[in-house]
Amino acid sequence: MAPEVIEGKPYGYSCDMWSLGVILYVMLSGRYPFNGKNLENEIINNSHSFPKNVWGKFSPQCTYFIDRLLNKDPSKRLTADEAFKHPWFDILTDEQLKIQTEAGPASDD
Protein backbone atom coordinates (compact mmCIF):
# COMPACT_ATOMS: atom_id res chain seq x y z
CA MET A 1 0.00 0.00 0.00
CA ALA A 2 1.45 3.36 -1.03
CA PRO A 3 2.26 5.82 1.75
CA GLU A 4 -0.28 8.35 0.52
CA VAL A 5 -3.06 5.75 0.73
CA ILE A 6 -2.07 4.89 4.30
CA GLU A 7 -2.24 8.61 5.11
CA GLY A 8 -5.76 8.85 3.64
CA LYS A 9 -4.74 10.91 0.61
CA PRO A 10 -6.32 10.34 -2.82
CA TYR A 11 -5.31 7.31 -4.86
CA GLY A 12 -3.59 8.16 -8.15
CA TYR A 13 -1.34 6.67 -10.81
CA SER A 14 1.63 7.23 -8.52
CA CYS A 15 0.19 4.54 -6.24
CA ASP A 16 0.37 2.08 -9.12
CA MET A 17 4.00 2.99 -9.67
CA TRP A 18 4.67 2.37 -5.96
CA SER A 19 3.05 -1.06 -6.34
CA LEU A 20 5.27 -1.79 -9.35
CA GLY A 21 8.29 -0.97 -7.20
CA VAL A 22 7.15 -3.35 -4.48
CA ILE A 23 6.45 -6.13 -7.00
CA LEU A 24 9.85 -5.74 -8.68
CA TYR A 25 11.61 -5.65 -5.31
CA VAL A 26 9.95 -8.91 -4.27
CA MET A 27 10.41 -10.62 -7.64
CA LEU A 28 14.11 -9.83 -7.84
CA SER A 29 15.14 -10.24 -4.22
CA GLY A 30 12.63 -12.73 -2.85
CA ARG A 31 12.09 -10.33 0.07
CA TYR A 32 9.70 -7.55 0.95
CA PRO A 33 11.00 -3.97 0.96
CA PHE A 34 9.29 -3.36 4.30
CA ASN A 35 8.98 -5.77 7.20
CA GLY A 36 7.68 -5.52 10.68
CA LYS A 37 4.69 -6.18 12.83
CA ASN A 38 3.06 -2.89 11.84
CA LEU A 39 3.52 -2.72 8.08
CA GLU A 40 1.76 0.63 7.66
CA ASN A 41 4.01 2.21 10.29
CA GLU A 42 7.05 0.65 8.62
CA ILE A 43 6.10 2.10 5.22
CA ILE A 44 5.46 5.58 6.61
CA ASN A 45 8.40 5.84 9.02
CA ASN A 46 11.21 3.70 7.61
CA SER A 47 13.12 3.47 4.39
CA HIS A 48 13.64 0.42 2.25
CA SER A 49 17.20 -0.75 1.66
CA PHE A 50 19.18 -2.76 -0.84
CA PRO A 51 21.40 -5.10 1.21
CA LYS A 52 24.61 -5.94 -0.68
CA ASN A 53 24.28 -9.66 0.02
CA VAL A 54 21.05 -9.68 -2.02
CA TRP A 55 21.26 -6.67 -4.34
CA GLY A 56 24.99 -6.75 -5.05
CA LYS A 57 24.41 -8.88 -8.15
CA PHE A 58 22.03 -6.34 -9.70
CA SER A 59 23.04 -3.34 -11.75
CA PRO A 60 22.99 0.13 -10.24
CA GLN A 61 20.35 1.04 -12.85
CA CYS A 62 18.09 -1.70 -11.48
CA THR A 63 18.31 -0.63 -7.86
CA TYR A 64 18.02 3.06 -8.77
CA PHE A 65 14.91 2.28 -10.83
CA ILE A 66 13.23 0.46 -7.94
CA ASP A 67 14.39 3.12 -5.50
CA ARG A 68 12.70 5.81 -7.61
CA LEU A 69 9.48 3.77 -7.70
CA LEU A 70 9.54 3.41 -3.91
CA ASN A 71 9.98 7.12 -3.26
CA LYS A 72 7.60 8.06 -0.47
CA ASP A 73 6.88 11.42 -2.11
CA PRO A 74 4.48 10.71 -5.00
CA SER A 75 5.61 13.87 -6.80
CA LYS A 76 9.18 12.49 -6.90
CA ARG A 77 8.18 8.95 -7.85
CA LEU A 78 8.71 7.82 -11.43
CA THR A 79 5.74 8.16 -13.76
CA ALA A 80 4.96 5.41 -16.27
CA ASP A 81 6.53 7.49 -19.07
CA GLU A 82 9.66 8.11 -17.02
CA ALA A 83 9.85 4.43 -16.13
CA PHE A 84 9.83 3.35 -19.78
CA LYS A 85 12.61 5.85 -20.53
CA HIS A 86 14.75 4.71 -17.59
CA PRO A 87 18.25 3.39 -18.48
CA TRP A 88 17.41 -0.01 -16.98
CA PHE A 89 15.25 -0.61 -20.06
CA ASP A 90 18.13 0.22 -22.39
CA ILE A 91 19.27 -3.40 -22.11
CA LEU A 92 17.28 -4.25 -25.23
CA THR A 93 17.63 -2.23 -28.39
CA ASP A 94 14.61 -1.04 -30.35
CA GLU A 95 15.41 -3.69 -32.98
CA GLN A 96 15.41 -6.48 -30.39
CA LEU A 97 12.10 -5.28 -29.02
CA LYS A 98 10.64 -5.19 -32.54
CA ILE A 99 11.78 -8.77 -33.21
CA GLN A 100 10.26 -9.99 -29.95
CA THR A 101 6.98 -8.20 -30.69
CA GLU A 102 6.77 -9.61 -34.20
CA ALA A 103 7.48 -13.13 -32.95
CA GLY A 104 4.36 -13.02 -30.80
CA PRO A 105 3.91 -14.37 -27.30
CA ALA A 106 5.98 -17.30 -26.12
CA SER A 107 4.24 -20.66 -26.05
CA ASP A 108 3.67 -22.59 -22.86
CA ASP A 109 5.21 -25.78 -24.30
What does this structure look like?
By secondary structure, this protein is mostly helical. The chain has a single domain, classed as Transferase(Phosphotransferase) domain 1 (Transferase(Phosphotransferase), domain 1, Orthogonal Bundle), CATH 1.10.510. It has seven helices and no strands. The protein has helices at 3-6, 13-29, 39-45, 52-55, 60-69, 80-84, 94-103. The radius of gyration is 16 Å and the shape is flat.
Structural class, from helix and strand content?
mainly alpha
CATH architecture: Orthogonal Bundle
Largest sheet properties: none
Helix content: 40-55%
Q: Pick out the low-confidence regions.
A: none
Beta strand count: 0
CATH domain class: Mainly Alpha
What's the shape?
Answer: flat
What fraction strand? under 5%
Q: How widely separated are the two ends?
A: 36 Å
For the CA atoms, what is the radius of gyration? 16 Å
CATH fold-type name: Transferase(Phosphotransferase), domain 1
Number of helices: 7
What is the string of SSEs from the N terminus onward?
HHHHHHH
Oligomer: single chain
Q: What would the average pLDDT be, to the nearest integer?
A: 85
Structural domain tally: 1
Quick one: CATH superfamily?
A: Transferase(Phosphotransferase) domain 1
Task: List its traits.
7 helices; mainly alpha; Transferase(Phosphotransferase), domain 1; 109 residues
Outline the secondary-structure elements.
Blueprint lengths: L2 H4 L6 H17 L9 H7 L6 H4 L4 H10 L10 H5 L9 H10 L6
Helix pairs in contact: 2-5
Quick take:
The protein has 109 residues and is mostly helical. It starts with a helix and ends in a 6-residue tail after the last helix.
